[in-house]
Design brief:
By secondary structure, the chain is α/β, with parallel strands linked by helices. Strands 1-4-3-2-5-6-10-7 form an 8-stranded mixed sheet, with helices on both faces. Strands 8-9 form a two-stranded antiparallel sheet. Strand 5, helix 5 and strand 6 form a beta-alpha-beta unit. The longest helix is centred in the N-terminal third of the chain and has 12 residues.
Length: 284
Amino acid sequence: MTPTLVRHHTQAEPSASVDTGSRARDWAEIQERMLAPLYEAVYTRLEVGPATRMLSLGCGSGLALLIAAGRGAHVTGVDPDLERLSLARIRLLPGPEEESGPGPAEPQLLESVAPPAPGREPYNLITAFTPIGCSPDDGEELVRTLGAAVPSAGRHSTVVLTGWGPPERCATDAVLRVATRLAEGPGAARAAGGRGARRDDLENVAFRSGLRPDGSGRVACPFGYADVDSAVRGLLSTRLFDAAVRATDRSQVEKEVAEALHPHLRRDGTVWMPNVFRYLVCTT
């Protein structure tokens, strides 16, 4: 079925010195696939399939939606980034030479959370696959997003929250500290380092959102890149370096990220960073 792109009035503000179109393509082509093991592990655990009516918060360019739809799920994605949503639409839209056969209801792509479309049942699964733990306020932002999303789900629905693992299990942690140091200074970088080790971050978000934790898991999601240039482009596409770009400039951020990647550069020129992510399964 053909997905629809619904535009609302709110729109993410582009960061200074950032080409949002190029960044969205880098996300879709380089970075988004790094979290595919997380998507697959969650879907397998929850037995996502034709009975699943999923709302994906921060759906990006649609890879998590595509995987869920491939299992037969009815999917709705939300992301304030119109460039990413446009790429998600391309991914989920059959080409002109293809015919849409019988299957799940058409995917919905929204810029902000909205109730299920007319004729659709309430969501029974909400996923928040953007990991928290990189900044002091990402948990706060997730609480606000869940406040808008949870009322659209039915009773006893499942909500999945995700976060970075402890720094000693996440090789990318040292690279991410470059963003904090450039944006706020060395003292701030030291204070922010190790936030991923706070095991109760996801539980705190769940409690504040009125959710009941009902199990958790950890998934290895190594970040692998063809070369340093691809790694820099992929990492900057995450939006985690936007404040650093505003505080300095993009070339400075690219230079320092490339330097931070040197310990993870292999002899064949590829970059490899093992990471572990944690997910928390909750019920409404």
